[in-house]
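> forwarded from #structure-qc
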């Protein structure tokens, strides 16, 4: 899988990007045989359409990519990734593309070349692209590689991506970038006051663990916490079969922060990075935790368990409390946390929470720039009462079903220790193939956060 651009001096086939209402004007400027060929083929420059144009001897001389209308383009992103999938093997160069769209379309072309081929041969796009002028090709290649790491980790089933395998992936990443890594496993979690991580994962075949990776020696401090529930049966509150169908993706938060960490380290951003991944499997066994149990978190708060399927916030709580002890300049959690988030915004948007308006402004602007949509939801303080059961400090699964993604975020905020904090409740899964985004694991929010970091941390 080659997620790189062709070299700038490579002989390239011109790929003319043509908007629907500009087709007639473009044809008027072409030789008669080209115009005749295009008209005879019925090419109308509709979004997602392509056409190969031969010369008089039948050799490929150019290709056309329909760019549709502004209204059609507003309904999606990475439109030219479709051309990357449709065109034959070769090297292509954009012609006529609005420079403002060049970065998005160039990244989409790279991402169209991704394929998850661990278990069978796949057929990714074979057409290569010369990076458009003015685009930071090296940065886009780094971003594509980080996204590929995230996708690979999510797509790998739990039999090959349990807590030990996730730890191995972290170790490989750390080794590649000269980062340090420390792991607390099994009963050592109890000894070092990570009772909730231990409790959630103790019934599984592979021991629960907390993975702690650090990189960088100067600059502001950024801590990323990713939910690493490698498979979620729901525990004793067992999910129905349909609900377990894609639960290999329940470590999507961990996969996303690892992909983002790879981007940060490869780009050598001037900051000190810490990545915390509580890696567990929420399984069913005689020692599984039960509804009604009360657990004590690392920061001393007690939590009543009213649903063992609301386990992600438990492992994140211990990791967040640990992170907050260092008081980082910014603390971010990413998790496939609640079905309520999907009901609210669907699978394509990454909802996030923060009390910091400057960080929200940076994220919103960055997301629009890099075509990585996010949506801010509120830490609505009046709902705090909904997560307070009375018998303990907190309830892990408030009854009633209202505002489930907000109450989960409020729960996590109790463990962030007053730090500058943002929480992303991502889906981590693309249910239907779209341009540059095949069905399966997907990164969400990472590119927006990467783009926002210079402004957010004054880098």
């Amino acid at each position: 899988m080659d997620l790189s651009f062709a070299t700038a001096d490579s002989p390239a086939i011109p790929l003319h990007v043509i908007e629907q209402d500009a087709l007639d004007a473009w044809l008027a400027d072409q030789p008669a045989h080209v115009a005749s060929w295009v008209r005879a083929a019925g090419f109308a420059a509709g979004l997602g359409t392509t056409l190969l144009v031969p010369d008089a001897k039948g050799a490929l001389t150019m290709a056309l990519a329909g760019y549709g209308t502004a209204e059609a383009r507003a309904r999606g992103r990475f439109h030219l990734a479709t051309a990357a999938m449709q065109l034959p093997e070769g090297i292509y160069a954009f012609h006529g593309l609005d420079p403002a769209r060049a970065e998005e379309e160039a990244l989409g072309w790279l991402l169209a070349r991704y394929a998850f081929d661990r278990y069978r041969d796949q057929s990714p796009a074979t057409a290569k692209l010369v990076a458009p002028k003015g685009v930071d090709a090296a940065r886009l290649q780094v971003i594509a590689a980080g996204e590929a790491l995230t996708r690979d980790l999510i797509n790998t089933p739990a039999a090959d991506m349990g807590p030990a395998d996730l730890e191995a992936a972290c170790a490989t990443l750390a080794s590649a970038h000269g980062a340090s890594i420390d792991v607390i496993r099994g009963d050592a979690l109890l000894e070092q006051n990570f009772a909730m991580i231990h409790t959630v994962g103790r019934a599984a075949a592979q021991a629960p663990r907390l993975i702690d990776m650090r990189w960088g020696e100067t600059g502001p401090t950024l801590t990323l916490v990713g939910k690493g529930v490698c498979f979620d049966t729901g525990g004793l509150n067992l999910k129905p079969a349909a609900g377990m169908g894609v639960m290999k993706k329940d470590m999507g938060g961990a996969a996303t922060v690892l992909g983002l960490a790879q981007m940060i380290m490869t780009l050598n951003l001037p900051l000190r990075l810490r990545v915390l991944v509580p890696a567990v499997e929420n399984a069913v066994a005689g020692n599984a935790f039960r509804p009604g149990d009360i657990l004590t978190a690392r920061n001393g708060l007690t939590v009543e368990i009213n649903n063992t399927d609301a386990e992600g916030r438990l492992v994140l709580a211990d990791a967040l409390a640990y992170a907050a002890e260092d008081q980082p300049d910014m603390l971010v959690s990413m998790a496939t946390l609640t079905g309520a988030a999907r009901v609210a915004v669907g699978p394509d948007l990454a909802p996030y929470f923060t009390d910091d308006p400057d960080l929200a402004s940076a994220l919103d602007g960055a997301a629009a720039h890099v075509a990585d949509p996010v949506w801010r939801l509120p830490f609505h303080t009046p709902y705090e009462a909904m997560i307070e059961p009375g018998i303990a400090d907190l309830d892990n699964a408030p009854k009633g079903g209202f505002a489930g993604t907000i109450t989960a975020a409020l729960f996590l905020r109790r463990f962030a220790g007053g730090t500058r904090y943002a929480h992303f409740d991502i889906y981590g899964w693309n249910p239907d193939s779209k341009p540059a985004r095949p069905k399966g694991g997907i990164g969400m929010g990472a590119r927006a956060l990467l783009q926002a970091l210079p402004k957010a941390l004054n880098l």
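QC bot note: The chain has a mean pLDDT of 97. The chain is about 35% helix and 20% strand.
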